[in-house]
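Please, structure for the following, as tokens.
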Amino acid sequence: QVQLVESGGGLVQPGGSLRLSCVASGSIFSIGSMGWYRQAPGLQRELVAGTTTGGRTKYADFVKGRFTISRDNAKKLMYLQMSSLKPEDTAVYYCNAEIAPTYDRSSYLKYWGQGTQVTVSS
């Protein structure tokens, strides 16, 4: 079994900061690309930021300059540092990763975490 668990969400005032974490555990042989997605009520899930094993990153236009994605491959961790938060950033944030499990090392499968709520409100 492979599991992704997010943490770090919560309530923050506009202009504030939060740091989300995602840890992968279980029968993992290798982790490929990872990313953060979010889904607000009534809207589709959307990509926030992504990172490759080599450290290349990409960001949605609506978070450029405010959010920073990073990862620690040795610890199987990924982070999302969020700054200058706006009410429209309110959503459930999901961790996503392409992982090759130990029982099928040739196949990278997509896994999702359960999500962590981020609410930006005064």
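The mean pLDDT is 96. Residues 31 and 99 are 4 Å apart (CA to CA).
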